[in-house]
Amino acid sequence: MAKLTVAILGLDRLGLSIALRLRTYVAKGGKHEFELIGYDSRDDYEKPARKLKVLDKVERKPYSAVASADLVIMNLPFDELRAAYELIASDLRDGVVLLDTAAIKQPSEAWADQLLSAEQHWIGFTAVVNADYLLEHQLGAERASDDYFHESTIYLTPSVKSMKEAIDLAVNFAVILGGKPAFLDPAEHDSLSAITEQMPQLLSVAAYSAAIRHSAWGDAKRLTNSPFGVQTRYLFTHHPDGLRDEWMANRERLGRAIDDVVDVLRDLRERLAENDEAAVEAFLMEASDDYQDWINRRHKGDWDEHASQRVQLDNTIASSLFGGAISKRLFGGDKDGRN
Q1: Is residue 338 part of a domain?
Q2: Which of 6, 145, 162, 315 is most exposed by smallest CB count within 10 Å?
Q3: In angstroms, rounded to a whole number, what is the distance separating the alpha carbons of residues 225 and 232?
């Protein structure tokens, strides 16, 4: 049996769900043990994480959390990430693997390349959550669950410098979390993220900005029910600095996504102005039919994946080539990381 120290920097729903899943894995007879150390600068996340008592320790400083870690989950807000890399770099052990959950990967990849040594291994790590939670948007630790990643895809985005052994370790960790590992290039990941992560953020802020500029906003702001609250929630869940930095870092890809949305809105506006009921109905029916197909596939995990994205688990053999022999300690002789 191996014991691995895992530092989780960022104790929101995702970070605490990782911790809960690892606890469940051990409780159900998994052959490895985990010491879990947490950190979060935000009281709204740090205090609930302490109350849940799923972590062995919650540190006040990020470098204290990672000093003994074999695996580090970089799950901090985007505007805190670079500073966090700078703070922890000198305290990381040789052989450590960092899994970065940021919505866009290329900035983190560049910071890791600049600040980490050749013995410290960075891999992008994006979990697509369990479809049962698809329509939930709460980020708080109190919403964490041990099945948050059950049967979901976990995308790994290694850098060109990532060692095979570090990649294999990330694959096996994804399996322990209950996910199905797959690969994406960091640039391709960020192009997709512009559509599925950043565009909803931008539309949320744009909808609120348009509303407050309306001449009737003084009265309309009283007529605000859940549709408006849900649509504009990113101003509640995200700090403006984080949104600014994330959008600017991916500005070219996000700009192309904006152009696509503007084209759709302009076309719809013309159809409404022309009182073209048939065209509006056709627009809605096409979107509705495609949505039903997408959400059914999303719940079933029924995708026509590219062969290059699928991970052949029997070919991922986590070896002991790095400094601390981490992968051998964690996975022993079991090839795919399962019990």
Answers
A1: no
A2: 315
A3: 11
